[in-house]
Every structure is written in structure tokens, then in C-alpha cells.
Specification:
The structure is a homodimer. By secondary structure, the first copy, chain A, is an alpha/beta fold. The first copy, chain A, has 12 helices and 12 strands. Chain A starts with a helix and ends in a 10-residue tail after the last strand. Chain A binds a DNA duplex through residues 4-6, 14-21, 23-24, 28-30, 33, 48-58, 115.
Chain lengths: 336, 336
DNA sequence: CTGAAAGCGCTAACAT
DNA sequence: ATGTTAGCGCTTTCAG
């Protein structure tokens, strides 16, 4: 049996307007009538239809989230942060991972151009003009996560990869006096990776170290990349006394390679990573790495998005969340 | 500027009905008029409003997914499977993790009782009568993931934990002739855990092994649980020659404990796990475990849900996905 | 504090 | 093949 607002109105003897007011927030309804209506509604098992409400109010209480292909604990953390904050603020979350470029754009258009969501959170590996155009046309607010500098005048929440990388390399230099510090990089087209590389260069430069090209190897952020990078870096006459590996996933590969090669960490070579992923705590020796507040990234993005929606503020805004050095023993520090 | 179906109709010289038909699937529209309308629509940047469409069609092209507190790679995989299948079938996915019991029920009511989604996928640690009642009242189809046997006559997709556990313990018995096989269990109120324990008992029983209570320890599916369980199991005079650890997470803890205690795996004691989580491949020695098709669980659930929605079929259905033994060296098998 | 009625933007009979 | 029109279920002026 269909039970809509009319039914409740009829049975309670009030108008639909009054029933509606009962379910809207601070509307003026006499407390006694409110009770009556609520009672009837409960008996009838009435729940306001959110779609009808959305159509009428022109807002859906829903935010759209677009992520790169959903995988790994990074995305888990992001979703976790987003979901948590959205729940606190009584919003629903539609997630979509971009399985392909085409799908990505379609989804973006759908979210930005239609009434399905009130706002969107977008994390994409690369933002091109196509995206820029879509966004320009749209009336929905959007906040980016970890976007690079391609787009100007956007709202963007990101991680301070640069500082994090600088800090951990600085640690190797200042605390341990390592002279020959190698680097296994991330993908060349990855914004995070690029920033981390910059931080590495900066630290070496500032402290007067030479850049030794033989000690700088390409990588891919995957376990295998770290494995191969680690093996390769020892093939040169120049041997590193420490290696900054651009993420923990690759560091795991490096640990494996070290084990196979009989290389002791940190005895023969110090190793540090980046990300402080969950697995990292199980590496022996405990890896020195950079903690990245991923979950925060999600929750703050949601929080800010909702703020924009309320205030209709449209100003560009960038927030760069700080990272934190996590000291283990892989860098040569002693266990305490 | 607001651009709705009326606007497109007016500018193209056709009625809203015809414009609507252009956007509905196989409706009869002359190809030439379709082109004209599409052209105008494109110029105007028109996108049909999905909310209005939903209200009119009484369906949203969206499915709701409720998961236990979002965490760990298990949930990542589930979401991945769900998202992928939903995308293929042109559906949107609203996710909600149940941060609390109250939130869980609220969300369930919202999804089941209102028009926000067309169907729901539910995974919950425990299904009580409250849940049963909500579901009974609702008209939306629902499919469960990994539900226990509390509810009868539901659609349920689950993992064959029982067989998986039986198989891996059988492997220890048949291939390795271990006599004293210990168990570190999962939480007592966890359905998966219970099934795995059953499989363990069954294997011992069938092959005429004695159940040795000292070798059966409680656990919690967390790293720490495995760590402590492993240490504890060696405190008894009865020493196991093999241990079945009810999930890989705990196995990681056990590896750590073994390292600290100077216990060699599998030399001093064989160890096997369950789940085949991503991390497992990095354990040395490679752990023997049971692969669980989690992502499939998600995609099949979605697929079946959509099937139900189309056919309006309402029959109970249970699908139990098989697991697969993954042989490493931790059980005593040789590397090949 | 409550009611009447005009939408919100689209779909789906029913006509033509 | 296309147009007319009555909803879909709720919100929100505008009156009273």
C-alpha cells in the first residue's frame, strides 16, 4: 500500500503543508499537532520520499566522489575519511571510481551537470582542459583532492609531499651524516612523485651534497619497482650509504631485494620510505617513513565542500596538509 | 540560465514528450528530429535531470550498499567488486558504512523504506530481528553478503569458509603428517570465524586426530591477536607441530612472535593462514593460506540484485563461493 | 499556526 | 511519429 504525504495528511486531518512542516526543520507547527502527525505517520510507516523532496528543494543531500581506479589502502583511507565526515553531516555519498578516461569524464559530467549530487569531490591523476571545461560550465561546487597545479583558482586539498620528502632526507643528512643518498623515484607523471623528488633535490642542495645521477633511479610506486630499483642501484661503482625510496610499497620490494642480496638494512645501507602505509609497521627493521594524513584529506575535503555549499562562497582555496616523520630503525636510528 | 526539457522543446519546435523520447531508450522518434533535438540540446548544454526522472519513473538507477565499519583491505575489495559491476550496468552506488548500530539501522531504513535507491546490498556482522523487521516492511530488494543463518529465505552471497578451513587443515594432515595441529581462532561472534573453526574440527575428526584443547586459542583477527596467540600456544607442555591461524592478519602477528622467540617457520612449527590478503605475499617464508574471492562477492551480489529487480523474482537464494588453497612454504612445502 | 495551490523537471498514457 | 496532459511526492509562497 502506497503511503505518501497525502495519506498522512488525510488521516491526521491536517494539510500536506503541515505534514511537510513536521519533517522540515525549524518550521512552526504546534507541538500537539506535531505529535499527532508523527503518531499517524509512524503507524502508517511513513517515510518522506527523498527523491520528491530533492526535486522540490533542488538539493539532494548527496555528494559525489570520483576517485582514480579504486585500489589499495590509500583509497580505502580516503573513502573512510569522506564517509565519516559525510555521515556526521547527514549526507549521502555516491562513489565512483574512474575505470577509464571515458567513464571518468562521463561521471564528472553527470555529477557536475545534473541534479544528482549537490557537490563533488574529485581526485584524478591528471586534470586536463576537458575537465576544466566541464567544471566551468557547471553550477555545482567541486573540491579537488591532491590536484596538481594545472588548474588555477580551484579548491584543493593536498599533502605536503615536498616538505615531507625534504624532511626525511634532511634527517638522513643531519642525524646520520650520510653522504651518498640515493633515490628511487615514483612515476614521472605523478604529481606526488614529482614533489617528493623535488624535496629530495632541495635537501641535497641546501646541505651542499652533490647530486649523483647514478644513484637516482626511476620507479613506479609498486613493490616490483622497489625490488628492481634496489638491485640496480648497487650495480654502479658509486654505492649509496642511504636510499630514499619514494613510497613504502617500493620499500617493501627493496627489503626483499636486500634480503636476497644479503644486504643488511641499515648496516650496509640505510633505507627510508614514504606514506606510512599499514603494512609498514610489520617491516623488520621498522622502516623510517613519512606519515601522510590521508583520511584527513577526505574528511576535510567533505567538510569544506559543505561549507562552500552553505555560504555559496566561491573563492579558490588550497590547503596543504602537513606530513610527519616516523622514525624507525631502517635509517640507522636505534630502537628506544 | 536554467535549461530544462521545456526549453529544449521550445527551441527545437517539438514537444517535451518528443524530447523525452530522445533520451529514453528505444522510443520511436524520427531520426532527423532526433538529430535536431540533440543538436539544440547540446548547444544549450542540456542534461536531463536525473532526480525528476527518478521521481517520474519511480526508480533511481542507484543501489545502496551498507557495510560494517569501513576498514581494511577486505572492504576495499568488496567495494571494488561492487563498483565495477555497477559501472558496467550503468548504476550508481551509494555507500554507507555503519559507524554505529544506530547509524546502521537508520541507513537501512532510509535505503529500504524510501525511494533513494532501487535495491540494497547489505553486509553486517550480525543480523537481528530489528533488521528482519525492517526488511519485511520494505518493498526494495536486498541481497546479503556473508550473512549467517539467522535469517531464512534471503538472498545471500558468501564465502565457503568451512570448506576452505577444512581443506587447509587437511593439507597439513595429508601432505605433512602433522599430528598436533593448533588453532588460533577468530572472534567468537564472527560468522566467518565460526565456520573456519568448524572446518578445523571436521578435518581433525575425519582423520582421527585428537582435539587438544590446549592447542586451541582465542583470537580476534588482528595482528596483536596472532602475536599473543602464538606466544601463548608454546606455553603448554603440548607443543603443536603446526598451527592453523584463522586469518592472515593474525598470521602476521604470529610471524613477528616467531621471530622474537627464535622459532623457525616451518622448521620448528608449520603455520598456515586464511584470506590471502595482499600483504601475505610479502611474508617470508611465503605463507600457505586460503584465497578468498572477495571482489567477486561484491560483483556477483550486484549482478544478482539487478537481476532480481528486473525479473521481480523474489525467491531466496544462497550462493557459496569456493575458496582456493594457496601453497607457500610456511606449511613445510618446498619452494618450486 | 495552518491551508490552498503552484510548481520542481520529467515520463507515460492517451490522442491524433 | 508526435503532441497533450496528468501525475510522481514533496516544498513553499501566499493567504488567512
Amino acid at each position: 500500500m502506497k503511503v505518501d504525504i497525502k495519506e498522512v495528511a488525510k488521516r491526521s486531518g491536517y494539510s500536506t503543508a503541515t505534514v511537510s512542516r513536521v519533517y522540515s526543520n525549524g518550521e512552526a507547527v504546534k507541538s500537539s499537532t506535531k505529535q499527532k502527525i508523527l503518531k499517524i505517520a509512524d503507524e502508517l510507516n511513513y517515510i518522506p520520499n527523498p527523491i520528491a523532496r530533492s526535486l522540490s528543494k533542488q538539493s539532494t543531500d548527496t555528494i559525489g566522489v570520483i576517485l582514480p581506479d579504486l585500489f589499495g589502502e590509500f583509497f580505502m583511507d580516503i573513502i573512510h575519511g569522506i564517509d565519516e565526515e559525510a555521515y556526521k553531516q547527514n549526507r549521502f555519498v555516491i562513489v565512483s571510481s574512474s575505470h577509464s578516461k571515458r567513464n571518468f569524464l562521463e561521471t564528472l559530467v553527470e555529477f557536475m551537470g545534473s541534479g544528482r549530487v549537490d557537490g563533488v569531490i574529485l581526485m584524478a591523476s591528471q586534470i586536463d582542459e576537458m575537465v576544466a571545461k566541464i567544471i566551468k560550465k557547471s553550477k555545482r561546487p567541486i573540491v579537488f583532492i591532491n590536484a596538481g597545479d594545472e588548474l588555477k583558482n580551484i579548491v584543493n586539498f593536498k599533502i605536503n609531499n615536498y616538505e615531507g620528502a625534504f624532511g626525511i632526507v634532511e634527517h638522513l643528512i643531519l642525524e646520520h651524516k650520510y653522504k651518498k643518498i640515493g633515490l628511487i623515484k615514483g612515476p614521472d607523471d605523478n604529481y606526488d612523485a614529482i614533489e617528493r623528488t623535488k624535496g629530495y633535490y632541495k635537501a641535497l642542495t641546501i646541505y651542499g651534497h652533490n647530486i649523483i645521477p647514478d644513484l637516482i633511479l626511476p620507479g613506479n610506486f609498486l613493490v616490483e619497482g622497489g625490488y628492481e630499483g634496489f638491485k640496480k642501484i648497487f650495480r654502479h661503482k658509486q654505492r649509496p650509504d642511504a636510499i630514499f625510496i619514494a613510497n613504502d610499497m617500493m620499500a617493501i620490494g627493496a627489503y626483499q631485494a636486500a634480503e636476497e642480496m644479503g644486504v643488511n638494512i641499515p648496516g650496509d645501507v640505510a633505507v627510508v620510505g614514504f606514506d606510512d602505509i599499514y603494512l609498514s609497521q610489520f617491516l623488520i627493521p621498522r622502516i623510517t617513513t613519512v606519515h601522510v594524513p590521508i583520511s584527513d584529506l577526505g574528511s576535510r575535503a567533505v567538510n569544506y565542500l559543505l561549507k562552500i555549499m552553505q555560504s555559496k562562497n566561491n573563492k579558490p582555496y588550497v590547503e596543504i596538509l602537513p606530513t610527519k616523520l616516523v622514525v624507525g630503525e631502517s635509517c640507522g636510528c636505534k630502537k628506544i
